[in-house]
Amino acid sequence: MKMITLMPVIDAQKCKGCKTCIRVCPTLAMKLEEKLAVVDLERCRGCANCEQRCPEYAIVMAPRPEPILAGVDPANLDYEKIRELCLKARFHPEQTLCYCTGTRADEVAGAILLGAKTPEDISCMTGIRTGCKVECIEPVLRLLEAAEIHPTPVPGGWQWYGRTITAWEIPVSVKQKYASRGFYFDEDIEILDRVVSAPLQGKEQ
Ligand code: SF4
Ligand code: SF4
After folding, report:
1. Is the terminal CB of the chain with fewer CB neighbours within 10 Å at N or C?
2. Is 39 in the pocket of ligand 1 (CB under 6 A)?
3. Over its length of 205 residues, how does the chain's per-residue pLDDT go in tens digits?
4. pTM for this one?
């Protein structure tokens, strides 16, 4: 859940239509119209990626006239289905996935149950990936995969590239190779499994 208080303002005199802002926007809120960048404020989640990357310094972030709230409340959905999806992706439902926005696994799973099919949809619905824009793509992709949804990156976009393997997927040969060098993969997996299957703490229990 994220309260969005900022929006990009584009200086048409400076914009050169280079599309950098389109390539980096995690919610696909930017497009070109008549060779100038235009923002869809319904999709914008105020992350400032476009402002930070515009090579012409044509964008400044300004307060929104009215802040908007992006979020999915898992308490309004079938929590057992949310829990199943989280466990399949090996997340505890109450695990925080995005520390910038405080978005938990159950909220992302809720967005998927409501029909989100891509990381961009999920960012739009929950605000995840609109803080540092770096860390939380991996868990988003894992939850989509658990729901048997396999999105592909937007052609020409720089939003994300794919997911890396998890501790559970490390090949046996790699485990064996590093076993004598102070790596404890199986012990780590055991601890992670205990975290994932711990009882729920919150009111949804
Ligand atoms: S990155 Fe800047 S110059 Fe390039 S299209 Fe966007 S606003 Fe225009
Ligand atoms: S979501 Fe971020 S990158 Fe996209 S338009 Fe809004 S501020 Fe710019």
Report:
1. C
2. no
3. 899 999 999 999 999 999 999 999 999 999 999 999 999 999 999 999 999 999 999 999 999 999 999 999 999 999 999 999 999 999 999 999 999 999 999 999 999 999 999 999 999 999 999 998 888 999 999 999 999 999 999 999 998 999 999 999 999 999 999 988 888 999 999 999 999 999 999 754 4
4. 0.93
14, 15, 19, 40: residue to mutate for ligand 1 pocket, most atoms within 8 A of CB? 15
- Domain 2-67: assigned CATH number: 3.30.70.20
Domain residue ranges of the chain, discontinuous segments joined by +: 2-67, 74-165, 166-197
Give ∠ CA 149-128-147 in degrees, rounded to 5. 20
Closest by CA position to 92, among listed 10, 195, 201: 195
Instruction: Report which residue type is found at 30.
Output: M
